[in-house]
Amino acid sequence: MDMGIKGKRALICASSKGLGFGCAQALAAEGADIIMNARTEGPLLAAAEGIRSTYGVEVTTVAADISTDAGQAKVLAAAGDVDILVNNAGGPPPGMWSDWERDDFIQALDANMLAPIAMIKALVPAMMNRGWGRVVNITSQSVKAPIAVLGLSNAARTGLTGYVAGTSRQVAPSGVTINNLLPGIHATDRAVSLDGGVANAQGISMDDAKTQREATIPARRYGTAEEFGATCAFLCSQHAGFIVGQNILLDGGAVNATL
């Protein structure tokens, strides 16, 4: 299937590894020129060179913390006008409801709600003027089914979901779609971190922690960054113009719900 995005310009935040990297790979494979962002320059440059040499597209890199005003300004200055925006940022640390103070919530909101909103506000008006654009926000299955130890993520990402629900319907008449991808557990560094927490808490091995978590997923495995990226690429394609304001789970069936 031709996604129809060859030559489009795509900005993927937090894309040196994990799900963001999967999205960058998939968009590059479809011929989109990409702008990659991450906080640490070394891994970012290595990831960009791998994509550049594999797919032959133009790749721009911007080392910056997308959760800060300065980082957003740096990324936007380098990106210029883009046709596709993939918002992504690392999730806040796990914990208990009694552990979190106001500053913890502010940090979570900055990274997982306010930064994506700032990027949308900065880039969508030009998309609307051109009559075409795609925004995909990487959020979490926790906006459908809260995960107790990820309360900071539950709160911040659900706030973004509410913003997108209204905003997506306001910009759709101009040919711009905004949707959310809700990953469950995928084989990324985040999974290693979460499994490590379980292993330490229960005094079990990392393999046992992974096996224990896999047993709660109907697909009986973790997702891959490649299949996640392929879904992102479809949402960014010419074929997805009638998908507006949706929350699409990629969780192997872990969220047990009819709707």
* Residue runs with pLDDT of under 50 for 5 or more positions: none
Cα shape: globular
CATH class membership of the largest domain: Alpha Beta
Task: Using the coordinates shown, work out and report the CATH topology of the largest domain.
Answer: Rossmann fold
Tally of distinct domains: 2
Specify the biggest β-sheet.
7 strands, parallel
**CA-based gyration radius:** 18 Å
- The proportion of residues forming helix, as a percent range, comes to 40-55%
- The number of E-state strands comes to 7
Find the structural class using helix and strand composition: alpha/beta
Record the strand order, biggest sheet. Answer: 3-2-1-4-5-6-7
CATH homologous group name of the largest domain: NAD(P)-binding Rossmann-like Domain
Element order: H for helix, E for strand: EHEHEHEHEHEHHHE
